[in-house]
Design a protein that fits this description.
48% of the residues lie in helices and 11% in strands. By secondary structure, the chain is mainly α. The strands form five sheets. It has a three-stranded antiparallel sheet, with no helix packed on it. It has a three-stranded antiparallel sheet with strand order 4-8-7. Strands 1-2 form a two-stranded antiparallel sheet. A hairpin with a 6-residue loop joins strand 7 and strand 8. Helix 2 packs across helix 3. The longest helix has 23 residues. The two termini are 38 Å apart. Bound molecules: zinc ion (3 copies). One zinc ion binds next to helix 6. One zinc ion binds next to loops.
Amino acid sequence: MTKGGMESVEVFPAEGKGRGLRAQKEFLPGDVIFAEPAYAAVVFDSLTHIVCHTCFKRQERLHRCGQCKFAYYCDRTCQRVAWLDHKSECSAIKRHGKVPTENIRLAARIMWKMEREGSGLAEGCLVSIDDLQNHVENFGEEEKKELHADVESFLEFWPPQSQQFGMQFISHIFGVINCNGFTLSDQRGLQAVGVGIFPNLCQANHDCWPNCTVIFNNGKIELRALSKISPGDELTVSYVDFLNVSEERRKQLKKQYYFDCTCEHCKKQIKDDLMLAVKEGEHKPSAEMVKEVIQFSKDTLEKINKARLEGVYHEVVRLCRECLKKQEPVLGETNIYLLRILSIASEVLSYLQMFEEAADYAKRMVDGYLKIYHPNNAQLGMAVMRAGVTHWHAGLIEAGHGMICKAYAILLVTHGPSHPITKDLEVMRVQTEMELRMFQQNELMYYKMREAALKNQKIQVMPEPTTETSPSLFHKKE
Ligand SMILES: [Zn+2]
Ligand SMILES: [Zn+2]
Ligand SMILES: [Zn+2]
């Protein structure tokens, strides 16, 4: 077996965590430790006609497979690349007369690949599909019911002429999808569009303060170093957003991934104090008051979610303003409930083109995030980028340019220079730098040029806010 670019890592028995992934050489922040194509991947059910089934790019006009009338591709090239994986799927869909759900399609793709290549180690894989964890024994009643339903639908779909697998093995595959599925996002990393299985990535254990991050770029996932890594160090990624107190993160990890997090940040509850910060000094609020405001914030966040789903953005703004008024005298500037409201308020106000108020909230959000997140966190980078664009729109060119530079520096590490979103940022950085120079030399000229730039829409207006601001990396139902 060739290691296919996997020479610099090895699988090892990690104490108390089953297997783990370890570095064999030194890595610096931004280094790509490995790039891995999906063993198998599918587009989400709701997006099958607007996302290419090969490269997962969102496209305006896609070509449809003339045979099954289900699969869509950018062009002939993507269609040709897809044929090896789609051939069996295509005839099975025609035979079955309808398209099964994404889970069934993914399981079938995995098994057709095993039929073609055998169940041993695939080229460039450190572990085989047989060896991946499935956690079926940890399933609760509800999950078991879903598993049975999936297996039934699978058996209806699976053609009799394909290799037949045992029931236990089929359950194993669904278990693997359930706990190892990785979310694929569109080319700009803004929308979750599909799910795939990456056997090597699966070997990386979780840490709330990881030394690596994963990004989907150009059809492959890249495992990228966030800090200096020495030979022999364990490579870790975070399965959940850090913006939760340790107790909450641990609960979420236990529920979705069936383990107790014992990372340094959880053990020592590092940064919990910042995330729960309350106002200090002579107007220090009582514990009772803090409790009341937190409860009010939780209730408001629920109402906001509902209003957002319904697209009633003015109501979202009203709820945010009302909540901020309650929070401001009581909560500290790094309190996560305050930060959540600031994030939503700045995003929605930007969308409504009320840029000045949005910029004010965005600035406070970024200041808080910078104290909480790892300096090379992808979520932080994306938030700083959004804040920078908001400032630019508000005509605050100095702060805007500063934020865009900051975001660019983070994304160079987390996404790399070839990622479309980093390239977008590079364009913005050059433009805002030029504008800043002009602003410093001649303000009048600057405002004239800005007007022209706004007309040309060089920097795009904010996309419509969604409840899913940045797709979570690991595909797991809540
Ligand atoms: Zn394509
Ligand atoms: Zn087809
Ligand atoms: Zn942890």
